[in-house]
Design a protein that fits this description.
Structural class of chain B: alpha/beta
Family (chain A): Belongs to the aldehyde dehydrogenase family.
Strand content of chain B: 15-25%
Number of helices of chain A: 15
Protein name (chain A): Aldehyde dehydrogenase
Catalytic activity (chain A): octanal + NAD(+) + H2O = octanoate + NADH + 2 H(+); an aldehyde + NAD(+) + H2O = a carboxylate + NADH + 2 H(+)
Subunit structure (chain A): Homodimer.
Subcellular location (chain A): Cytoplasm
Largest sheet of chain B: 7 strands, mixed
Number of strands of chain A: 17
Oligomer: heterodimer
Radius of gyration of chain A: 26 Å
Shape of chain A: globular
Strand order of the largest sheet of chain A: 9-12-13-8-7-14-15
Chain lengths: ~475, ~475
Amino acid sequence: MSKISDVVKRARAAYNTGLTRPLQFRIQQLEALRRMIQERRSDITEALAADLHKNEWTAYYEEVIYVLEEIEYTIKKLPEWAKDEPVEKTPETQQDESYIHSEPLGVVLIIGTWNYPFNLTIQPMVGAIAAGNAVVLKPSELSENMANLLATILPQYLDKDLYPVINGGVPETTEVLKERFDHIFYTGSTGVGKIVMMAAAKHLTPVTLELGGKSPCYVDKDCNLDVACRRIAWGKFMNSGQTCVAPDYILCDASIQHQIVEKLKKSLKEFYGEDAKKSRDYGRIINARHFQRVMGLIEGQKVAHGGTGDMASRYIAPTILTDVDPQSQVMQEEIFGPVMPIVCVRSLEEAIQFINQREKPLALYVFSNNNNVIKKMISETSSGGVTANDVIVHITVHSLPFGGVGNSGMGAYHGKKSFETFSHSRSCLVRSLLNDDAHKARYPPSPAKVRGGEWPPHSLTSAQGVLR
Amino acid sequence: MDPFEDTLRRLREAFASGRTRPAEFRAAQLEGLGRFLRDNRQLLLDALAQDLHKSTFEAEVSEIAISQSEVDLALRNLQAWMKDERVSKNLATQLDSAFIRKEPFGLVLIIAPWNYPLNLTLVPLVGAIAAGNCVVLKPSEISKSMEKVLAEVLPRYLDQGCFAVVLGGPAETAQLLEHRFDHVFFTGSPCVGKIVMAAAAKHLTPVTLELGGKNPCYVDDDCDPQTVANRVAWFRYFNAGQTCVAPDYVLCSPETRERLLPALQNAIARFYGDDPQRSPNLGHIISQKHFKRLQGLLGCGRVAIGGQSDESERYIAPTVLVDVQETEPVMQEEIFGPILPLVSVRSLDEAIDFINRREKPLALYAFSNSSQVVQRVLAQTSSGGFCGNDGFMHMTLASLPFGGVGNSGMGRYHGKFSFDTFSHHRACLLRSPGMEKINDLRYPPYSLRNLRVLLVAMEERRCSCTLL
């Protein structure tokens, strides 16, 4: 596969010319990316429709709009982010310049994924470009139409050598991972995340891993159930449940389980009609393997709603399971499908314990009118991020970093955090060569005893990194 | 029988109990560290003298004072660092509460090296404790005297339910690394850094790797040779050259080389006297193995200054080599000893090329009266940190992050950066159940009318239209 090796070599050679260093160049590329999105919107929508049954609304509103926003925000802020950041000086360095200088890392690999195949490939790319890197893109082969589209249109708008697209399956991805990069950004599963990090370790390449997990959704007895269930239904069944920050399962008191089911059903009917299969807005499962996997999770469960599927169209009805046993398969893996299990717990404490017995999730949700419940839930658990009284929305705030912890990932991005992730913050101290006398005290030989008894002089030791 | 199983389980349970969360607990631990330093000053000085023939001056300045000031800094700023960090919101989330919560990871492993065995153990430890983690410390077995103090004395000053010291060599460390930690902080060689990262990858454990490399030191023709020689010599021969950020080799023109040689001779004589082996201010080599390695390097190129060695004292004279070839061992590996090769280059361009052909170093130095020259070296290279016209002074500012890039490492610490390195930054958004009308636009069924309203709203740039 020397072809992959050549592509990476070319990207590095292009990077080494220094072409990406001026901000003007980076902004031009981002503007070209924006033009690409605007001019090729229908192609992008078509690809998303073919891969995941998205329509022009869901394509735009769930994917494209975030990328456009990110580009807009990045272009505006880039000059500020790229500036040297002066830092506080010690008494000894008052006459010097001390600052943090942001530099590109070099050649960055971005491995995309299939559930939001446009957004999750291109949004990180925006930060990587802004930080001045060359970017090798490896879209997911599962969302085949988008992968092919990106390989076609990106070179038409962006520099071909600096931002190549490499397509292929496992063999090609394995091959790409043998190459040396200056940062690897991966979105996908925990299992493959480990493989990526192992490959990166061989070259001491830093990684950002956006993984997943089972994002719990605790619904308190004291909450507005109508609003809660509406928001939960929206977040859960969007893209047919194939969202890394979707509420994976509900934890609630048994006394409200039935109400929750009824209200979820009500919202589902409002969103997708009586038969979601007929709704333009309801997604499809990405492929047969995942279809079978998700259908398998429903087996043996108490189905309160839905539970059916159609293999030919890879449609799975919005499904709600009740009284779910924590030991059952549906509670062992990230569902990534339109199946909502409800697990009954007898108290907030039990819910917290339940959550803490499991791997740290990418997101955590808590619905309650009582701020103390929310505070307690947040302070006694951990997760990548949290939204209280809604779902998913925390990832749409530019100034909040988006990333996981533990099994759900490491590193973060979005907004300025993307720029930081793809940059090296280089500590700089610039002194003058004049006046070496000022430094006399630091040079040996040290006197055996200093009159007055204090050695080393306080001025030296107190200069050691003490912020005043 | 796994010797670490019980200890790790105990520490995990302690973390789960929440003991390390309150600021009071963390502050008490930090105060304990401060007392450890103050109560055992002589013991620590003796250990450093035994391990590395470290002078009182060097020990105070580079080990004890630095550790103390990091403890003091953390105590002073703990509350501020622990506070939730409010972030700016977009239009859709104006009424919500958006902030980043700093949370401990859990169980942290710190693997420390032998060259600054107190500093490079305690400074990361300060950050890990301040951030609320439980900590396993693995001091270097090569700096035996300090290892003993850290194993036997340090634990008395900390809550041993939340802190443990484990001992051993490479085999034990490998075994330790098979366990799961929530963060691994390693200081050492790039070679072992790869092993640590690969082990961490199995558990998706984030790592901070403080590694090394060959730190280039460019000396321009436009400079005062004695001033430069004083500074370069001091930072080179400090701790007998066993410093990860020491200038490893000099790049200069043949003319400047001729001016530097007598100046370096002067500096060495001034600092260490006519018989440096007898000087209390010059360190000795840590072990027989490293001594032999360095003795071998003395055969590279031609000895211009120094070159003496004494196996019985593991003493190597402050040495300057000239006429070295790039292929010789002294230019292939990080020297980590009191040997300074002067490499001739014909221009600044050649120097920059020379630097960029090699792995990114941990530190990079440029000496010149011309700030353009200094800025050019900075702009056209990359490195962990940079200092113009001096040695590793940049490390004395806690406001500057300390870390590598590429082969010299990933991640950073010192001051607040330590606290941040050992914390998970959790994005939190607390929404109110109200404002449902605004949310309405995001729910299906999606019509062209919705889309048009949204697009119009988006044209108004101010509206960040993630109207979720």
